[in-house]
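Sequence, please.
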C-alpha cells in the first residue's frame, strides 16, 4: 500500500480559501501589475510555499483564482423558457460585474490584457470561454424548444447578450435602474428573433 511521503503537500481547503480571498483583495487594491506573491501570502497568513504548492507563478495563481470566482457565477439554469433563462443569466452577469471586489478587478484585467497577450489569452480561455459555453447551452435549449431560429448566429448572439451590460456597468459605470433588467431582456428577445419575443 502506497504511503504518503513525509512532508507531502496537503492542500487544505481553508488555506486555499484564505489565499483566494487574499488574491482577490490584493487584485482589487493593488492591481495585476503591483500584486506580489509576498503580499498575498502575508494577507492570507501563510508562507509563500503554500502559494507555490498550488500555482507555479503569479500569473497562474491570478488566472486560477479569477476563473474560479467568475465561472462559478455564470448562471447555468433552465427555467423552461428563454425569457426566464435570459433574466437569470443577465441578473447573474450584473451581480458578477457589480461585485464589490470584482468590479475593481475586471477593468484592471482588461487593461493588463492589452499590455500582455498572455493575460489576454488566459482571460479569454479560462473565464470567457467557460462562461460563453454556459450561454451557448442556454441558446441551444431555446433553439430546441423552438423559441429561437435554428440558424441563429450563436457567437453574435452571445455578444449581443453580454455587451450592453458590460458597456453600461463597466465602461460607462452607470446604474442599472430597477426596470433595466426587464427592459434589456425584452430588447434581447427581439434582437435574437425570439418567437413571441
Amino acid at each position: 500500500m502506497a504511503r504518503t511521503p513525509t512532508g507531502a503537500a496537503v492542500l487544505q481547503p481553508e488555506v486555499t480559501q484564505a489565499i483566494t480571498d487574499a488574491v482577490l483583495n490584493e487584485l482589487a487594491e493593488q492591481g495585476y501589475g503591483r500584486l506580489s506573491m509576498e503580499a498575498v501570502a502575508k494577507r492570507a497568513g501563510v508562507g509563500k510555499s503554500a502559494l507555490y504548492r498550488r500555482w507555479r507563478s503569479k500569473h497562474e495563481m491570478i488566472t486560477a483564482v479569477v476563473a474560479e470566482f467568475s465561472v462559478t457565477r455564470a448562471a447555468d439554469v433552465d427555467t423552461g423558457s428563454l425569457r426566464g433563462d435570459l433574466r437569470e443569466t443577465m441578473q447573474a452577469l450584473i451581480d458578477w460585474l457589480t461585485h464589490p471586489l470584482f468590479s475593481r478587478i475586471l477593468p484592471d484585467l482588461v487593461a493588463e490584457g492589452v499590455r500582455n497577450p498572455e493575460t489576454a489569452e488566459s482571460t479569454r480561455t479560462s473565464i470567457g470561454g467557460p462562461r460563453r459555453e454556459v450561454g451557448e447551452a442556454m441558446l441551444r435549449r431555446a433553439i430546441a424548444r423552438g423559441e429561437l431560429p435554428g440558424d441563429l448566429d450563436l457567437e453574435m448572439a452571445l455578444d449581443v447578450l453580454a455587451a450592453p451590460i458590460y458597456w453600461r456597468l463597466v465602461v460607462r459605470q452607470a446604474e442599472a435602474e430597477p426596470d433595466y433588467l426587464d427592459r434589456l431582456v425584452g430588447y434581447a428577445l427581439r434582437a435574437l428573433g425570439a418567437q413571441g419575443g
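Confidence is low (pLDDT under 50) at residues 2-8.
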